[in-house]
Specification:
This protein has 28 helices and no strands. It is mainly alpha-helical and about 525 residues long. The protein has a domain of about 180 residues: Serine Threonine Protein Phosphatase 5, Tetratricopeptide repeat (Alpha Horseshoe). It is elongated, with a radius of gyration of 31 Å. The relative contact order is 0.05.
């Protein structure tokens, strides 16, 4: 179903008074339970929110749920609560849509005007305001609003068609014809444009052209579309599976993985082949530490969509913190397959992170080098390229870490790495200076051991003393063994340190979620 068809279907359902409901009548028990639960959770959440804008956001989202299920009165009431908390163009606009579809044109126009005032760059608000004014006979007001819509969306055929209606209202048929021809050029498949062209030609007395345009129409009543992200978001929610997918996405946004599991679980029951639903379900399960079900779901998706790079990425993501060597191999294979299907920075970063975990530093180095080459100003990529090199005792990594620090001077962890790299790569004075500054700023085991490492070549006794105090910390043992000539190679961190693992591998991190 096309985006316009989706919105049109949504509007047609609303346009039928017989289908408008004031209760949950006609909805499935599952949907009713979900709506009741969402309402209760929203009210509880709002009671705990101190910021009016956050409370308005929570009410507005609830309104979108009701809106999507064709519960106009409930949607309007909740949008009103959102507006009373915080004047947000979104809630004015959506309340206007709901009011307009119920025939409450005066209320709709007031809300469209407020939406246009608060979000003057949102063309749909200006367009609907203009068309509403035209219906009320305010031709001048309609022209002003539609002209603003045209300025914002010059290639929107539906706006040009609206302006042609304004010109027709003023009997300027030549200008109306010009606008409609431009609209037809932009949307030749829209039968409503052809019909209006026929009517204008009839007014101009050219009956042959009028007949020709009516023949072109051939019963096609399609109207051009306007890019309307807000209404599209609500329209998508009207599909049963998407309703739960969006509920799950919003739950993840507010950090409620438990509710996300329920929502995405419902979505996969309703639409087992919906990849977005399945991915969300796997992610939510993983965030709830339900690792086995998450992996089962990811593998189920792979059987459904074996050519989806997102599905391969999801499998790698849910396996990324596994302690099983076999599953780590599976994760690495999955992320490489995802890259074969679609090159993507996030996927490339996860590939490099998994290579670091498996101690395949050369592979990691190639991944991070590719990322740094594509985005040279990104400090994070440069840092991890340096880490991959330093893991192999390649001191050229120090240069990359230094460049990362230059790009992000307040990155404390990068300063610790650079101080240690300085100490081991021939710049002990610089490392010592940086290590002392770090300890002055934050005195903890990492900065104290960084100072110990920085003192190895200039004050071995002091370095040993500092390291011994921190035993049994593995870095402390590594430094002490090295100073005792225990034949242990010295690295900036011990081999099993979490410092070698990018944030993408953290169990709690959501920065790399599929």
């Amino acid at each position: 179903m096309t985006r316009y068809a989706l919105i049109l279907a949504f509007w047609l359902v609303w346009a039928s008074p017989a289908l408008a409901m004031t209760t949950f009548e006609g909805l499935s028990p599952q949907t009713v339970r979900a709506l009741e639960k969402i309402r209760a959770e929203t009210e509880l959440q709002i009671s705990e929110l101190s910021a009016a804008e956050d409370r308005g956001q929570a009410w507005g989202r609830l309104g979108m749920y009701y809106h999507a299920q064709h519960l106009p009165w409930l949607a309007e009431e909740v949008y009103g609560r959102a507006i009373s908390e915080h004047r947000d163009a979104r809630w004015y606009y959506l309340r206007a849509v709901a009011a307009g579809d119920r025939g409450e044109l005066t209320q709709a126009l007031s809300d469209y005007a407020a939406a246009a005032e608060l979000a003057p760059g949102y063309a749909p608000a200006w367009y609907r305001l203009g068309m509403g004014r035209l219906v009320q006979g305010d031709v001048l007001g309609a022209r002003q609003a539609l002209s603003e819509a045209r300025r914002l969306a010059p290639d929107a055929a539906i706006v040009l068609m609206g302006l042609a209606d304004v010109e027709s209202a003023g009997a300027d048929w030549d200008q109306a014809l010009k606008l409609l021809k431009r609209a037809h050029g932009l949307a030749p498949e829209a039968g409503q444009v052809a019909y209006k062209l026929a009517m204008v030609y009839r007014r101009l007395g050219d009956l042959d052209q009028a007949k020709a345009w009516l023949d072109r129409r051939a019963g096609n009543n399609a109207t051009p579309e306007i890019d309307d992200p807000l209404l599209l978001e609500v329209a998508e929610l009207s599909q049963s599976g998407r309703f739960y997918v969006k509920a799950g996405e919003w739950a993840l946004e507010r950090g409620d993985a438990g509710q996300a599991v329920i929502a995405f679980g419902n979505a996969t029951e309703l639409a087992p082949s919906d990849v977005a639903a399945g991915v969300g379900y796997a992610v939510a399960l993983a965030l709830q530490d339900e690792d086995l079900p998450a992996r089962v779901e990811a593998r189920r998706l792979l059987a459904i969509a074996p050519e989806s790079p997102r599905v391969w990425y999801t499998l790698a993501w849910v396996l990324r913190h596994s302690g099983s060597p076999q599953e780590l191999v599976e994760a690495a294979t999955a992320v490489r397959r995802s890259l074969e299907l679609a090159e993507d920075a996030r996927t490339r970063m996860l590939a490099g992170a998994l290579a670091m975990k498996r101690r395949q530093f050369n592979n990691a180095k190639q991944d991070f080098a590719a990322l740094a080459g594509a985005d040279p100003e990104q400090a994070y990529y440069r840092f991890w390229l340096g880490m991959a090199l330093l893991a192999e005792a390649d001191c050229s990594g120090r240069t990359h870490v230094s460049e990362a620090v230059q790009r992000r001077p307040t990155w404390g962890e990068a300063h610790i790495v650079l101080a240690r790299a300085d100490a081991l790569c021939g710049a002990p004075a610089a490392g010592l200076k940086r290590a002392r500054a770090l300890q002055n700023a934050r005195d903890d085991v990492d900065t104290r051991l960084t100072l110990a490492m920085a003192l190895i070549t200039t004050d071995a006794a002091r370095a040993h003393s500092l390291a011994t105090v921190e035993l049994p910390h593995p870095d402390a043992k590594m430094i002490a063994d090295y100073l005792a000539a225990a034949d242990q190679p010295l690295r900036i961190f011990w081999p099993g340190s979490e410092w070698w693992l990018p944030a993408e591998l953290s169990r709690r991190s959501t920065s790399s979620t599929p």
